[in-house]
Design goal:
288 residues
Length: 288
């Protein structure tokens, strides 16, 4: 094994880790504000991929140009899902919340299978197709652009939370819902915003993935399981934790696949997850 192969593998791990981080940011945002585990989060990513695909197939919109439309569309979908479904289970037993989001996952997946069939679809050529040479490494340009897009989106979400009044209101609601309401913060608006932003993050990740990953109704399952691991490693509710944990998981996954074989890469990530649960249950940047 040469150093070039190791560096190439590390770079691939960082790039896929950034995508995991972006998916996990939306998931941890919703959990941090509402204490609800959203099992349907992967299906928002799937809708983002189909949105990018159909805008390309019907109107020749490149996924990079249609990305803002996808993000806004998924924000609206996420906000609507909260208003129509999730709002009704606020305060319900946690088991009811789990079954509701799980049922929503099955529903969205079934709708996608009905509308678009279980066929695998690909976007043949986009404005970011091809390869790029970076520090002597050969990397896929779609993966590099997706990684850069994930970084920019995660930083934008972080700055929104720490630099704006709406972000401060979200943080206050996450810290203490009752106290935030006494301060005049409308918790329902914050919950709607959290679901909209969480779905928009998944939509952006979906549009970026659509440039190089197959699109099919169950595609979200490939990412949401890892996203749950990332959220736990980083600390539930921590955007910064999800970012760094995503990169760590990506590197561990691809390096584990290189050293032990591709069949073990997911098992290695899950072993890391279990070790973290024993050593630090609140995650790397989570609060005890």
């Amino acid at each position: 094994m040469t150093s070039t192969i190791v560096l190439q593998t590390l770079a691939s791990g960082v790039l896929i880790g950034l995508i995991y981080a972006l998916v996990a940011v939306g998931l941890t945002l919703i959990f941090g504000v509402m204490d609800i585990v959203n099992f349907s989060h992967g299906e928002f990513l799937m809708l983002g991929m189909y949105g990018a695909f159909w805008m390309y197939a019907l109107w020749s919109f490149d996924p990079m140009w249609s990305l803002p439309i996808t993000a806004v569309g998924l924000f609206v979908v996420g906000a609507a899902v909260y208003r129509l479904v999730i709002k009704r289970i606020i305060g319900a037993p946690s088991l009811a919340q789990v079954f509701t989001t799980f049922g929503l996952m099955i529903l969205l997946r079934g709708i996608a299978q009905f509308l678009w069939k279980p066929d695998f679809r690909m976007i043949d050529r986009t404005s970011v197709s091809g390869q790029v040479s970076l520090l002597g490494l050969q990397l896929g340009l779609p993966q590099v652009v997706a990684g850069a897009g994930a970084v920019l989106t995660t930083v934008a979400v972080y700055l929104f939370l720490v630099r704006t009044r709406a972000g401060a209101a979200l943080e206050a609601t996450a810290a203490d819902r009752e106290a935030a309401q006494l301060m005049g913060i409308d918790s329902q608006r914050m919950f709607t915003l959290a679901w909209g932003m969480g779905a928009a993050c998944a939509g952006v990740a979906g549009a970026l993935l659509a440039t190089f990953f197959p699109i099919f109704p169950e595609v979200g399952a490939n990412f949401v399981l890892i996203a749950f691991v990332v959220v736990n490693l980083g600390g539930f509710g921590s955007v910064a934790g999800a970012f760094w944990a995503g990169i760590l998981v990506g590197i561990v996954e691809v390096m584990g696949g290189l050293l032990l074989g591709p069949q073990f890469k997911t098992a290695i990530v899950l072993a890391l997850f279990l070790a973290m649960l024993v050593w630090r249950p609140q995650g790397l940047l989570g609060k005890a």
